[in-house]
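Weekly sync, protein design subgroup
Attendees: M.S., D.O., the rotation student, P.L. (late)

Item 1: inverse folding check
M.S. brought a backbone from last month's batch and wanted to see whether the design step gives back something sensible before we order anything. D.O. pointed out we never logged the input encoding, so this time it goes straight into the notes. Structure tokens as presented (186 positions):
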């Protein structure tokens, strides 16, 4: 499985992008521009990176770079890597962990600017239910809806509201979850 994701990881690291993103890219307009071939492979690529942080007695830092492809005008897929740092420092609990793994999602535009989001994360989490603590791979399944607003032909801002269907005390994600971001087309 690592062999499959190594080229993707290298591509995402090479891009060096720190954007908070997710959605497909609107086809370029033809006003005062050379005609673009929207069937071209590179015209259908987009990238992004979910970035999140919260600080306090519970500190979380999240980075999820990905690379996506628009299969049809209303359907796209993307895959990437995930790193999530969690630290809990309260009177009852004091621990920290690094969660890492892979993520993928598919989006279908139901009508203009409204999409259905289905996601999958394969995360390596700290299994604190065993003594001594071990690490465990955890499957995370999400489903939700979202809204896109285009800033330009290549950039869109999105808001996604989704539910996490993985019922595990090791699951690092809240329910429901709202993610704000933007996408950049190549």
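Designed sequence read out in the meeting:
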């Amino acid at each position: 499985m690592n062999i499959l994701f190594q080229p993707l990881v290298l591509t995402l690291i090479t891009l060096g992008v720190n954007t908070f993103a997710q959605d497909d890219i609107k086809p370029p307009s033809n006003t005062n521009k050379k005609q673009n071939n929207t069937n071209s492979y590179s015209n259908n690529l987009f990238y992004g990176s979910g970035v999140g942080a919260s600080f306090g007695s519970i500190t979380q830092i999240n980075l999820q770079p990905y690379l996506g492809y628009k299969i049809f005008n209303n359907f796209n897929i993307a895959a990437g890597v995930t790193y999530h740092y969690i630290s809990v420092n309260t009177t009852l609990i004091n621990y920290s962990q690094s969660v890492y793994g892979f993520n993928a999602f598919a989006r279908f535009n139901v009508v203009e600017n409204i999409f259905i989001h289905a996601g999958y994360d394969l995360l390596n989490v700290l299994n604190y239910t065993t003594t001594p603590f071990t690490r465990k791979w955890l499957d995370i399944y999400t489903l939700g809806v979202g809204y896109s607003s285009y800033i330009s032909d290549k950039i869109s801002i999105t808001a996604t509201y989704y539910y996490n269907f993985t019922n595990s005390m090791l699951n690092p994600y809240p329910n429901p979850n709202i993610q704000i971001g933007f996408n950049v087309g190549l």
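Discussion: The first helix runs from residue 2 to 15. The chain has one helix and eight strands.
Action: P.L. to compare against the previous round before Friday.
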